[in-house]
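Structure ticket #2291
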Amino acid sequence: MDPVSGDFAYNYLRNRELGNRPQLGTNDRFMNGLYKSFARCEWWDHFASLKNAAPGGIFNLEFSPDGSLLVAACEKRSILMFDPLSRKLLHSVDNAHYDCVNCVRFLDSRVFATCSDDSTVALWDARNLKTRIRTLYGHSNWVKNIEFSQNDGLLVTSGFDGSIYTWDINSYTENGFLYNRVFHTNGLMRTRLNPDASKMIICTTGGYLILIHNLDLRTLAQDLAGFKPNMYRLMQLSRTTIPVAANFTHLFSKRRKKNRIEFLTDFPDGDDAEVVSSLQVHPQGWCALSRNISNDENSEWTCVHDIQDLEYPTVDDRPSPENSGGEESDTEMGILSEFIKELCFSADGRLICSPFGYGIRLLAFSPECSELSSCVPENGAVRLHQVAINMCHEDIVVSTKFSPRHCLLVSGCLTGRIVWHQPQL
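Resolution: structure written out below.
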């Protein structure tokens, strides 16, 4: 019997109406059936409205926190705003930047930020897109992603100049916003914060991730001054003491109260990770999701990394060469690996959407689409479970995003087409 039809669906809805506690496994069974039925339901491209210039590739997709707006960052310098439920284009801003728009991040239900290969970050008000609110200058190379720490009121940006900047958007002065470079490393690709901004995760071109526990953005620059992750990683791999790097071993001590460093190198057997190009964090902050290109550039891997604080029995505080907290992984052939492909979690954290050639692939932690907390592998990494494949585009898919409020998924490809996916019951 289909898990979301017939008697099961009736009983599920009836018990929910009555407020009865669901039986063990009922929610998993329902979500499994729902996610397996995801299919393309609508699409948009610029040919649908000849008033709009061709946007080029859809490099990033972002929903507003309440799910009422969808904004696309486009290759040819534009941003597009949609009503995600009616799938209608509400606004388009041509020449929003002077180069490719790479990322969109909502700060609240109406204000969002964009960043670009023109080395700037722009603030916008969704109610009036005729002009930007502010432009943030500071980066010296392509700006690739934006995060926002609600607790600190700080915008966090990172780019291919290797720098991570924080911007105090509540303290505008004659000279612009107050900003600070809090970290720098060669080969930086993406930076993410977990939901409560207590951790920062950084992926690199060196085949490892940097995890900063007990994050304090106000003192990060001071605490990590002079630290060179690539040199420290080289010392770990060579098992030879490099005095300049060894001076920073205290940053890895589990006794540190804030800004403690950990390297994540827990990639599965067969994955000789080199460029870790894409990064996302679980909605509950339980794990990080990465996509990497293998050293031979013939395959791309989707991996899940444990980022929770665990107590390990240790003899001393010297960090081991590698972290062994890996969870799940999956692989595919490397297609146009020069393009960064953005993967995502569903709002409940049960499902992963990963670009897959001319379509998308839905992956889960278990065949039943269980929550991660109920199916953590006991020993080593295991394969993610494929829920569905949907070949729905005419070119390589480079961006995906689940709605935070509705059972809705969107994907974008290099020709500028955006596809909506919903359960077909």
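Closing remark: The first helix runs from residue 6 to 18.
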